[in-house]
Amino acid sequence: MNDAVAQLATVRAGIAAAAREAKRPEGSVTLVAVSKTFDADAIRPVLDAGQRVFGENRVQEAQAKWPALRQEFADIELHLIGPLQSNKAREAVALFDVIETVDREKIAAELAREIARQGRAPKLYVQVNTGSEPQKAGIEPRQAVEFVERCRQVHGLAVEGLMCIPPADENPGPHFALLEKLARQAGVEKLSMGMSGDYETAVAFGATSVRVGSAIFGSR
């Protein structure tokens, strides 16, 4: 068996066990397999194993490999999980099914324009910088609920979830708890949180999707 396929099975089992432990319904957590930096040949065995939801960090990299893979696998769901530059909004709306990194007014405005122009509406998440790290993208927690409301009222965007990346050197639990609290206050149902090292913790805190890369594909 291909290493990535074996590791995919291990991650799926870990998610299922964490969901059972948290007394959550089976299938309530979506696995987003993070395929950034891996080429189509590395991804195809995971597709053959039935995985259909993938995450990419960069628009340009995703454009280079996913249109061809979609010719083979029509039911792929592609998430943008890296920072979005405003000059890439057109390509992002055309390519991605979910954009998880809406984090500022300019991006919201550009996405609204492109959604209206293309008639294609990816699902949208607001990224929250739960650790207030200056080097990291995401809106400040204290501004998150108001920003979600502005996305809806000013830009006409249907925000359905929140996303976070906790500081690498901190216990992720409080960050996941904060995101869940903000989601309730903002009236959104989806929570994208948890990566290779902490996805089981994220499931315990209510994640509806986890973004797992190295635990499936290996180190980059």
Number of helices: 9
Dominant shape = globular
Largest sheet features: 8 strands, parallel
The helical percent reads: 40-55%
Q: How far apart, in Å, are the first and last alpha carbons?
A: 20 Å
Gyration radius (Cα, Å) is 17 Å
What is the succession of H and E elements? HEHEHEHEHEHEHEHEH
Features:
220 residues; alpha/beta; 8-stranded parallel sheet; 8 strands; globular
Concise overview:
It contains 9 helices and 8 strands. It is an alpha/beta fold and 220 residues long.
Question: Could you give the topology of this structure?
Answer:
Elements: H1 3-21, E1 30-34, H2 40-48, E2 53-56, H3 59-72, E3 77-80, H4 89-95, E4 98-102, H5 105-118, E5 123-128, H6 141-153, E6 159-164, H7 172-186, E7 190-192, H8 199-204, E8 209-212, H9 214-217
Parallel strand pairs: 1-2, 1-8, 2-3, 3-4, 4-5, 5-6, 6-7
Helix pairs in contact: 4-5, 6-7
Could you characterize the architecture of this molecule?
This protein has helices spanning 3-21, 40-48, 59-72, 89-95, 105-118, 141-153, 172-186, 199-204, 214-217; strands at 30-34, 53-56, 77-80, 98-102, 123-128, 159-164, 190-192, 209-212. The two termini are 20 Å apart. It has an eight-stranded parallel beta sheet with strand order 7-6-5-4-3-2-1-8. Helix 5 (105-118) links the parallel strand 4 (98-102) and strand 5. The protein is 46% helix and 17% strand. The mean pLDDT is 97. Helix 6 (141-153) runs parallel beside helix 7 (172-186). The chain is of the alpha/beta class.
